[in-house]
Protein: Phage tail protein
Organism: Chromobacterium indicum
Amino acid sequence: MSLEQQVAALVTASNNLTNTVAGKQADIDAKVAAKTAELDVWRQNARNEMTLPFRYSVEIGGDANTYYPVPIWASPYEKCGRLVICRDYNAAHPSSLGTDHVAGLLLELSIRGSAWSDFWMTRAEYYGFAYHQAVAKVRTDLIGRVVWLRGGGMHYDFLADFDLGQGKLYGGTEGLKPLMQPDSILYPDAAAPYKGGGVKVSPLTTVDPIWSSAVSIPSPIANI
């Protein structure tokens, strides 16, 4: 084989190797991109689940123009926690409010629970709604919190980084169970200062003015 033939064969072999490497690199790049996308999806889902791992759904019956108190008992003990109450504007709702685009809601709360009874606090980090009012009032007590939400068959999602204890009894009242009757008693079995009858809450037909518009911090609604 002549020198020219050897050089030509070497060039051909080099080109073939280059093409093979390029093909392998493209295959590797495609696999890396696919795995990166897969990991991004996993990371986002994991972040959502780890950030707010406790999730519950509540549907409130009654009248579509009435707001019913929903007790939220469990909260971090001597810790801060995050609670989000939301509903998609196409979630279950009364037909009297329309066919769709009904009462979209996002209410994000930071809460504090402590052995010191004067250090139970609730802070509204963000509150927004669309199409229809969904929240009438939020109240913080020494044991837990109460949120008045629109009824008539409205669906709400509760998300938190602590166990809300849906269906459990706290202070004699079932957590996250809407209270439909006037003068419903909260904390009937709780210790002082509630011992001896607890306190009463009732459905509302008017909205506390502080909840009549969307807010974000800083705002007068910051501490409830």
User: Anything to note?
Assistant: The chain is about 20% helix and 35% strand. Residues 1-51 form one domain. The two ends are 93 Å apart (CA to CA). The mean pLDDT is 80.
